[in-house]
Design a protein that fits this description.
20% strand, 5 helices, alpha/beta
Length: 127
């Protein structure tokens, strides 16, 4: 095993959380989730925090994600009654078990399938 491959294996062993506050994005949430599920980085913890949605955003998310959950792709669902994305993000932070985390909005998409790997590699290089 090359040193480069060995280093990548070490980096990819650290849990990474993606926290997404969800509010009335039934039409867009699947695209956001598809960009997360498609990441090459594992282990991932996806935390979705519903923030008083009046539509079926969380039901759509659960339906889509049900076939992707695994030992290295954990999904946590939560509810935050206090209005606002900041409150939902803060709730998500309390549920994270990861040394690394990031926030996505419920209509954002990660640009490439290596986005998280690249972020973690940069974190590791700066330590």
């Amino acid at each position: 095993m090359s040193k480069e491959h060995e280093k990548r294996e070490q980096v990819m062993s650290k849990l990474f959380s993606i926290i997404i506050p969800v509010h009335n994005r039934e039409k867009y949430i699947k695209d956001t989730l598809r960009s997360v599920v498609g990441q090459d980085y594992r282990p991932l913890q996806l935390i979705l925090v519903d923030n008083n949605s009046a539509d079926n955003s969380m039901q759509r998310a659960k339906q889509y994600l049900s076939s992707y959950e695994s030992a290295d792709f954990k999904v946590t669902y939560a509810q935050e009654q206090k209005e606002g994305a900041c409150a939902a993000r803060n709730k998500g932070v309390t549920l994270s078990d990861a040394p690394y985390m990031m926030f996505l909005d419920d209509d954002d998409m990660l640009s490439t399938y290596t986005s998280i790997s690249q972020i973690v590699e940069r974190f590791e290089e700066s330590e």
